[in-house]
Amino acid sequence: MLSVRSLSKRVGGRLLLQDFSLDVAPGEMVAVVGESGVGKSTLLNMVAGLEPFDSGAVIVDGCSLGALDDDSRTLLRRRTVGFVFQAFHLLAYLTAAENVAVPLRLLGWPDRERASRVSDVLQAVGLEGRSAAYPRELSGGETQRIAIARALVHRPRLLLADEPTGNLDTGTADDVLGLLVREVRRNAAAGLMVTHSHHAAARCDRVIHLEGDTGIPGAPRLEGDAAVPASPGAEGEAVVRPPARSQPVTASSADRIASS
């Protein structure tokens, strides 16, 4: 469903990502964790076709983004991708329900089916009673849940989420994470989530840890061992444990370890 091959990216002369490779299968949820500035959000933007990359390939649902022009990438995103942005990007002049409905309007869904689907998704995130509220009337947590509902409403084949639980209390965060994972499973979608929370990452099938200490300034090292369950850390968070080897692990080798 999602295939990233030897992706490299420089930002302001700094090598942010180098030869990064990753496959996400239908029905699989993968977390990307790491400190700020290592390229997590940039990776999501490149996978979504929102930001160019210097070399490599991103293939979404059989389509290579590098072979598409801007209009074609926009159409692919509209039909195939659901994106939970860290900054939310709700439209201030639309109500919560109208914001959630935007992807369906762009896809030409009939009014009755659109209203029914919006109602179902708002109920799933616990905000059916806030459908008529405008963004300025919503709390930070409510705004985040509306953004999540909008990303899920058209049943995307690829779900991208940038810190989807950052403004949520623990109980609501767990509910939202459960919803994201269920929707990925139910729709046989590929899910890729960026998070600072090891607790959130532990809900995913695999965890990829990006670090900026490979010897090339700003280049990531990928660590992950999905074959070994995450162990509990401080305050119940999961600890992402690297493979038992001293040399840096490449993206492709870590994926092989995770699938073994």
Structural commentary:
The chain is an alpha/beta fold and 260 residues long. The protein has a single domain (2-259), classed as Rossmann fold. It has helices at 40-47, 70-80, 96-106, 111-124, 140-152, 170-186, 198-201, 251-259; strands at residues 2-11, 14-24, 28-33, 55-60, 63-64, 81-84, 158-162, 190-194, 206-211, 221-223, 231-232, 238-239. Helix 3 packs parallel to helix 5 (140-152). The radius of gyration is 18 Å and the shape is globular.
Number of domains: 1
Radius of gyration over C-alpha positions, nearest whole angstrom: 18 Å
Order of helical and strand elements: EEEHEEHEHHHEHEHEEEEH
Share of residues in helices: 25-40%
The CATH superfamily is identified as P-loop containing nucleotide triphosphate hydrolases
Strand content: 15-25%
Largest sheet: 6 strands, mixed
Round the mean pLDDT to the nearest integer and report it: 83
Q: Please give the CATH class.
A: Alpha Beta
Distance between the amino and carboxyl termini: 20 Å
Strand order in the largest sheet:
6-7-8-3-9-10
Q: What is the structural class?
A: alpha/beta
Low-confidence stretches: 213-260
- CATH architecture group name: 3-Layer(aba) Sandwich
